[in-house]
Amino acid sequence: MTQDQTTGPDAEAENPTPWRPSRTVAVVLAGGTGTRLGLGIPKQLLKIAGKPIIEHTLAVFEAAPEIDEIIVLMASGHVEDARQIVEKAGLRKVTKVIEGGDTRNATTRIALDAVGPADCNILFHDAVRPLLSGRIVRECVNALWSYAAVDVAIPSADTIIQVDDNDCITDIPTRSRLRRGQTPQAFRSPTIREAYRIAEGDPAFAATDDCGVVLRYLPGTPIKVIDGSDENIKVTHPVDVHLADKLFQLAAAQAPRLTDHRSYAEELTGRTIVVFGGSYGIGHELAELARRYGAQVFPFSRSTTGTHVERAEDVEAALTTAFEATGRIDHVVVTAGILERGALAEMDEETMDRVLQVNFVGPVTIARQSLPYLQQTKGQLLLYTSSSYTRGRARYALYSATKAALVNLTQALADEWADVGVRVNCINPERTATPMRTRAFGEEPEHTLLAAEAVAQSSLDVLISDLTGQVIDVRRAPGDGPTPTVPAQAGSGPLEAPAGATSAN
Questions:
Q1: Before 184, cis peptide (omega within 30)?
Q2: 10-19, 59-68, 303-312, 316-325: least confident range
Q3: Element (H or E) spanning 150, and its range?
Q4: Average pLDDT, integer, range 17-27
Q5: How far apart are the C-alpha atoms of 271 and 204, rounded to whole Å?
Q6: What are the residue boundaries of the structural domains of the chain, listed by start?
Q7: Is the pLDDT of residue 6 over 60?
Q8: Beta bridge partners of 124
């Protein structure tokens, strides 16, 4: 167990016997059928950001050090689907995937039987809340040292009204004391078991959540509320699918950094990396760094090798060169790109065609040609976007549009190629010191730009990770000087001028 086992004076007064759970179990409730979404499959099996919703949810608990075990309660007829997802994703904490009940309360009873009689912490979470944060999991578990029941909620930004049978307002409660409930809901196992035992004797028993059962049948039990998050949405209606997908798109995944140079060498020695756009900028720095760690790197560009990324024959020739030299291709990196500023109505057709061909047709062409090679090695395609992908901007219409397209391409290909084991990710650096950016914007204060070397390092972290379908932000840490060596990978920051994220082809 990794929880903080200290308890406050209030907890000691309420619970004279110290709480000593045997383990902490996350129960993922996946009994929904997707009827409100109009789907032919349960909504938890719908893919968002390259993975089924339930896989995203399970991954949060798998990664949480506070969680010892995961039990999945799946919709009838789809238990085997869930088991295959668990097996393919390598989720080692999942011990049981079983069929849920006809109602939420019936499913909870089945889960309690599956957990077993030993005293433990239990977290009940909706499978269709895939954007749960590790912070919420941690605070729920920690709160159980002092409280027997814990809920997660956020303040209501809307005024809540109460109506009668004729849809006329009867009351407007004070908003400051209202909260919108989320999950997980966490309990000491004896508490939730006792609440359900008492509820069995009530013929009128009905509840939509488990904290409601404790509130009604164990009214003297305090239920601690911890802060949820606006991102922890429940995918219920069609609009929720689009919202969740966009939140995943805007979220910054983090690739684990290794501890020393020897670890990078162990990971990269013997691998073959092909870099399109490797003559200078981020592509050049990545190629040099990967070589130092033992990878066999093949950089291609228009200026040095005459390789045009939008030409299928050039791309195939480049890939063939690398494969014939080493017998494998593990990673294909596409940093090639161009930035042309100007009003769309004033841009000549040649310029427009060049931007579209290099920035979008090129990556698509490379993706198509690379798949057979990457499929052999279970490798990865790495693309590059810009902060401008989140919103089109005046005088950057085509650049912004192509960068947004690459994010969508990343997620689509991660989904398409998941079954053959090929990963696809996208790096989103903030404004970066590259020759392309200098040509577009002139000289800028060094301390305002991210170093290309830092983006290259983060790129290697992504290449050796298990991530797929992710947009990885690379940011300067607060107070960093002109050449930061460890980029921050925080959430998407404020919109800014288009990043110099790619090298000229």
A1: yes
A2: 10-19
A3: strand 149-155
A4: 95
A5: 64
A6: 9-250, 261-474
A7: no
A8: 27, 185
What tokens does 504 get?
């000229």
Tokens of 160: 């809540």
Q: 3-state DSSP call for residue 70? A: strand
Instruction: Specify the CATH superfamily of domain 261-474.
Output: NAD(P)-binding Rossmann-like Domain (3.40.50.720)
CA distances from 94 to 77, 82, 83, 138, 341 (A): 19, 11, 9, 18, 51
Cα–Cα distance, 335 to 289 (Å, whole number): 15
The label of the residue with tokens 């689907």 reads: 81
Residue-wise DSSP of 10-68 = HHHHH-SSPP--S-EEEEEEE----GGGT-SS-GGGSEETTEEHHHHHHHHHHH-TT--
Whether the model pTM is above 0.85? no
- The amino acid at 439: R
Q: 71 is written with which tokens?
A: 């039990």
Nearest of 305, 383, 388 to residue 340 by alpha carbon: 388
pLDDT tens, position by position, 126-160: 999 999 999 999 999 999 999 999 999 999 999 99
pLDDT at position 409 = 96
Mean pLDDT of 353-358: 97
CB count within 10 Å of CB 412 equals 14
From CA 211, how far away is CA 281, in angstroms rounded? 55
Q: Which residues touch 197 (CB under 8 Å, ≥6 apart)?
A: none
pLDDT at 32: 72
Distance CA 128, CA 126 (A): 5
Fold of 9-250: Spore Coat Polysaccharide Biosynthesis Protein SpsA; Chain A (3.90.550)
DSSP 370-426: HHHHHHHHT-EEEEE--GGGGS--TT-HHHHHHHHHHHHHHHHHHHHTGGGT-EEEE
Instruction: Compare 488 and 23 and report the one with higher pLDDT.
Output: 23
